[in-house]
Amino acid sequence: MSQTKNPTNNQPAVEGLDFHGDYEIHQTKKKPFPGRSVVEPRVMIDANVYAEIKKHASETVAVEQCGILVGNTCQDDLGKYLVINGSIRGKHARNEGAQVVFTHETWEYIHSEMEASFKGRAIVGWYHTHPGFGIFLSDMDKFIQDYFFNQPFQVALVIDPTSSREGLFAWINGKTCALSRCWVG
Q: What is the pLDDT of residue 173?
């Protein structure tokens, strides 16, 4: 798109469609969109839980850290959404090269914590760090997501503590996809 000057304020303007203006188009036709309609899942992370996860992620950059996300699904007028309102550190997890492995002891600890502290809530995903590697799901991460967190509401949070970048991945149409946003509050 080319840049031109806006005649009302002589500021640069971008030519093209602007769907955010406060105006009406009088001859708008009602017609289904020809492409597949994908509505991105909505995810809300409790601010205290988010802070605890970030703290855990920054404790070491020598190896990957991991843990479980705990929460519930809720529904409003727009549909279902996920609330993450708890986390459990992945104690006893093992690091193999540049990947983290949930051990039998890790799962025992997680299930005992779920029973003791999170009755009425579910495991809604997992988190792990990629210190210095960036934000993506590795082949091992995809294996973990596919076999241990394969419910439609289960997500994966990836944090790179060296760059303070993070990404959230969710199931969309049977595939794990990066979300463009989540809400912390």
A: 87
Mean pLDDT of the 6-12 span = 42
DSSP 57-71: HHS-SSS--EEEEEE
Outline where 91-183 has alpha helix (H).
104-117, 139-148
Measured CA to CA in angstroms, residue 63 lies from 1, 19, 29, 47, 54 at distances of 45, 45, 56, 25, 15
Range of the domain at 57: 43-184
Q: Provide the terminal-to-terminal Cα distance of the chain, rounded to the nearest Å.
A: 37
- What is the reported pLDDT for 2? 37
- Contact between 103 and 92 under an 8 Å Cβ cutoff? The reply is yes
Phi/psi of residue 48, nearest 5 degrees = -70, -40
Q: Which residues contact 183 (CB under 8 A, 6 or more apart)?
A: 42, 43, 44, 45
pLDDT, position 29? 58
pTM of the model: 0.78
Whether 32 is in a domain gets the answer no
What's the CATH number where 173 sits?
3.40.140.10
Q: Does residue 77 surpass a pLDDT of 60? A: yes
